[in-house]
Each structure stands twice: as C-alpha cells, then as structure tokens.
Amino acid sequence: MGPLIVNEIISENTNLLLAFFIGIAFGFVLEQGGFSSSRKLAGVFYGYDTVVLKVFFTGATTAALGLLFFSLFGWIDLSFVYVNETFLQSAILGGMIMGAGFIMGGYCPGTSFCGAAIGKIDAMIFIVGLFIGVFLFAEGYPLYEKLYKAGYMGSPRISEFFGISEGLFTLLMIIAAVLMFWGAEWAEKKFPRKEY
Amino acid sequence: MSEHKKRSYMNPYLAGVLIGVVVLASNFISGRSVGSSGAVKSAVVAGVETLAPSHAENALFYKEYLSGHKGNPLNSWLVYEMLGVIVGGFISGIISRRLTWKVEHNPKIKSRTRLVFALAGGILFGIGSQFGRGCTSGSALSGMAVLSLGGFISMISIFGTAFILAYFFRKLWI
Known about the structure:
Helices cover 68% and strands 0% of the residues of chain A.
C-alpha cells in the first residue's frame, strides 16, 4: 500500500499538496514544543532545558518503531522509502560546521523558520544567514567537490552496518533514548534556569 | 494581563511522539520525510537562475542541481513542506498567543550581539547543511527514522560539536 506516491495511489500534485499539510503539522508541533525559542533550544547544551533532546529522540524512535510496525502489517514497503545516502567525510565535516552554527545561532534551519513564523527577529536573521551560507557553498563548490563526493557508502542502514536486525537496533535505540531522558531530567534539576 | 498570558509549551515527550507521527505519515504518503535546508537550496538555485541565468548554466553546483531536477526548482516537495512549516508555526503562535516581534536573547548580552551571532550561525548552518546533504531535520531526524547510517553520523556530529563548543559560547546563553 505505502508509500502512496511510489505505488501511484496519489498523483504528483496531490503529493505536493500533502507536503504542504505535512509541513503545517511539523511546524505546528515544533512551535507547540517550544522549538521557536533559541534560548530553549540552546538549553540542551548547558543542561538547563533539554527539550531538544526529548523531542528529537522521542520523535526519531516513534517514527522508526512506527515504520517497523507498518512494515510488519504490510502497510508499507520499506524498500521504497528513501534512505539518505552516506558520504562519510562530507557528513562528518558538514555536521561539525552545523554544530558550530547551532551553538552560535541557537537555531537549526527548520526551527528558525518556525521562530520566524511567530515574529522572532533573530530567527529571521538566521534565515538570511542560511541563504548566504548556501550561496557561498554553491559559489565555492568546485574547490571542494572532491571532498563532497568522497567516502561514498551507498544508502546503508545503521543496522546493516552493525550486522544486526532493524528490530534489534530500534530496541537498542529506544533503550538508549530512555537512558538519555533519565539523564536529561537529572540535568534540568542540577542546572535550573530562571524563567525566560 | 492574565487573559493575554502566554500558554505554556506542550509536554516534550508528547511533542516528540507527534513529531514521530508526522515523520511516519510523511514516509507513508511520500516515501520520504521532512527536511528544511533543501528548501533553502532550491530557493538559492531559483534565485541565481533568475538573476544570473548564464552563471547558473556554467557554474558547477547549479549545473549539477539543474541536471538532476526538472522544472522550476521551487516546485519541489521540500519547498511546499517548508511553506507549511511557516503556516503551522504561525497557527500555533496564534493559538498559544506567542505572536510578537522580538529579538530573543540572554539579558546579559545586547540584542545586536545576538543578531550578529544569529547571522554567523545561519551562514555556518547553510554551508554545513550542504556538506551534510541535509540538516537536523532532513539528515538527522528523518535519517534516523529510517535508520540511515548517514543520519546517525549527522546527529552525532552536529550535537557532539555543539556540546564541545558550548563552553566557548556560554556567554551567549547563560
């Protein structure tokens, strides 16, 4: 049955319309969760507010578990679901640059649009930065094209990489998430914040 | 003032489950999941194509993008999704009475300092998301949901680096 677009149950235009509604749901929940606030987001790196960690890992594990159930019920063919390609060096370098951007800017791209949507001027300036950053990358691209395309590994799942089943990996991920939640609750008590 | 009081945020675990449901629904419907930086990339390509068409035809980055994408770069899944994010965030802001123009910052720093670092952070995130082929949503969150190895590498690399650098930028936040 699923994915609906791959099995041509919906048309390409319907798919784009539904993308808009998926975005509305995503943006709504992000804002309700407090992801429109840079000070809340940055809190995870100092322990005073760990909402990022909680929402992020609850989200990833819920989705991973849901996909496994859907697959088990025969509702979705996971071989048609897009799995991001892995280019090792570029992924690590990109992550490091993004990490620096996160601690300086207090937002990531999705949350900055969410913050801008409720009038945060710092989020709007962050978005201006995003455009400049992508443009700079594009203009200098020939200089690091080799690095960008190095270390291509295909589209491996992490479970394949470790030689275990998807179910077992997901279980380990859930256990790791629960342990992190426990640590996060502890950190919020240890590093309390004033209201902001 | 109490009637204008801001509503508090949703329980983070509930918000997480709902984000997970969105990612699940997205994979079920579209065979892919949410992202953000890709929409900015589309907009940059569209902008360059409009303002400097000969440059877009000749410079490698745009050439590679346009050879892999037919039609207007703005007519893409991620662009519609991100327009939705803005609408969704706005609706949530109305319901919870959080719509207000402001520069949010630690009272110990000037709002100008906040804006300078917001700009710098945005530039870095823009560059990094291209190397990473997606940002916190497209690569890390969506990638982890489908157990992509690259998604886990992005997540560890983004959060690990931010934790390591947190000490040096603590004055911005605490």
